[in-house]
Task: inverse folding
């Protein structure tokens, strides 16, 4: 072949390549544009969709504090970088205004946007995978009848190579299609409904199940707790884990409904979940959730012996100097001021992670559903060194939580060092 012939072939190849690229861009643009969708919903359908949107806790990630409802922008910190919740109002350019109900269901359950790009699994499509079509359509009808907000989506800050969305095809093949095993045992109608609410719509395992190196849920340890997603750990909420910390169905249901119970008050991400989701659920669905979490045959809450004979010393003096003014001389707490530490879930937890973080960082003001409120708690990271925090944590766990194992200075040091990352 002559040099001129080769040049002609290369020229035609380049032209064909350009045509293919332009065609993809044009069709992709047309696909992204598409017709604006309009959805009619009766008042009853709208309310049903609103309820399911609350159950699915959509507002938590798709509403930025102080921003327009469902207009996106909420930053979600992950080990792979920061991902922002997207605009899911009916805006046609920045939201879901051009999505059909089929495309919306596909995005929810398969993690693929209508233009074909892969969604990050921070959107819990791995849990939503078996959501019913009827529930998806109801959520879609509700969202499509909200006010459209023309707010552009915030740019994600995801590190290489996780920012290569094409690689998510492989992630989905490996992890997204797996069945979520039941966290408890049961066969009753309440248990079955509760499993759907907890595992699918509520996607509780996305936070409470430990994660692997690629960000996948470790389904062989479903609901057994996760220390890696935020500053606070999501505790073990298997039946055994709940019973070990003294939870029964009544206390658990009260906690999900109000954010408060004898065992704990909701804090951090869980306070958001209670405020935007579980506090809005029906009595029947709350009962179903607690039935599933504990199982049809709920284990008896573990009894503990609080040790009033814990030796006097520096740790006890730290408690009386820094804590007793709010929590009481005997850890009894004060309503709307400070939680009771006696048999408190975090004090009873075999993992001292959350207790250490609370001592180091303190807690903000808690606004619970309704008018209930709890004052802020100062952090003591600047007042106590690692050894003192470890000693105070150990004393609290032994005195009020029935935990004999000492908290290590290393555990405190690691969590103190992690403060700057959150």
Result:
């Amino acid at each position: 072949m002559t040099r001129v012939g080769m040049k002609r072939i290369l020229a035609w190849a380049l032209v064909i390549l350009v045509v293919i690229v332009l065609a993809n861009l044009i069709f992709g643009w047309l696909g992204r544009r598409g017709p604006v969708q309009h959805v009619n919903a009766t008042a009853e359908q709208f309310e049903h969709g609103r309820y399911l949107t609350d159950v699915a806790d959509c507002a938590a990630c798709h509403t930025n504090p102080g921003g327009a409802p469902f207009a996106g922008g909420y930053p979600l910190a992950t080990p792979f970088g920061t991902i922002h919740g997207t605009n899911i109002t009916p805006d046609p350019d920045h939201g879901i205004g051009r999505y059909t109900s089929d495309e919306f269901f596909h995005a929810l359950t398969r993690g693929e946007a209508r233009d074909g790009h892969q969604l990050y699994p921070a959107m819990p499509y791995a849990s939503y995978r078996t959501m019913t079509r009827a529930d998806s359509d109801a959520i879609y009808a509700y969202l499509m009848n909200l006010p459209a907000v023309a707010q552009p989506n915030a740019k994600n800050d995801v590190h290489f190579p996780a920012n290569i969305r094409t690689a998510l095809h492989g992630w989905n093949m490996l992890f997204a299609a797996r069945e979520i095993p039941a966290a408890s045992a049961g066969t009753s109608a309440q248990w079955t409904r509760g499993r759907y609410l907890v595992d699918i719509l509520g996607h509780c395992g996305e936070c409470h199940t430990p994660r692997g190196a690629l960000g996948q849920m470790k389904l062989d340890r479903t609901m057994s707790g996760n220390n890696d997603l935020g500053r606070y750990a999501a505790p073990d909420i298997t039946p055994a884990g709940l019973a070990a910390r003294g939870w029964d169905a009544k206390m658990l249901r009260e906690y999900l409904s109000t954010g408060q119970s004898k065992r704990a008050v909701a804090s951090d991400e869980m306070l958001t979940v209670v405020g935007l989701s579980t506090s809005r659920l029906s009595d029947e669905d709350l009962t179903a959730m607690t039935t599933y979490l504990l199982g049809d045959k709920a284990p008896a809450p573990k009894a503990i012996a609080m040790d009033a004979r814990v030796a006097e010393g520096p740790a006890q003096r730290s408690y009386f100097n820094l804590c007793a003014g709010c929590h009481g001389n005997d850890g009894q707490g004060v309503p709307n001021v400070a939680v009771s530490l006696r048999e408190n879930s975090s004090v009873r937890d075999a993992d001292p992670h959350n207790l250490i973080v609370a001592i180091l960082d303190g807690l903000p003001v808690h606004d619970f559903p309704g008018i209930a409120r709890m004052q802020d708690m100062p952090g003591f990271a600047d007042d106590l060194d690692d050894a003192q925090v470890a000693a105070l944590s150990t004393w609290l766990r032994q005195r009020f939580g029935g935990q004999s194992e000492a908290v290590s200075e290393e555990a405190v040091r690691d969590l103190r060092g992690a403060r700057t990352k959150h």
About this structure: The first strand starts at residue 75 and ends at 78. Residues 3-33 form the longest helix (31 residues). Residues 8 and 327 are 84 Å apart (CA to CA).
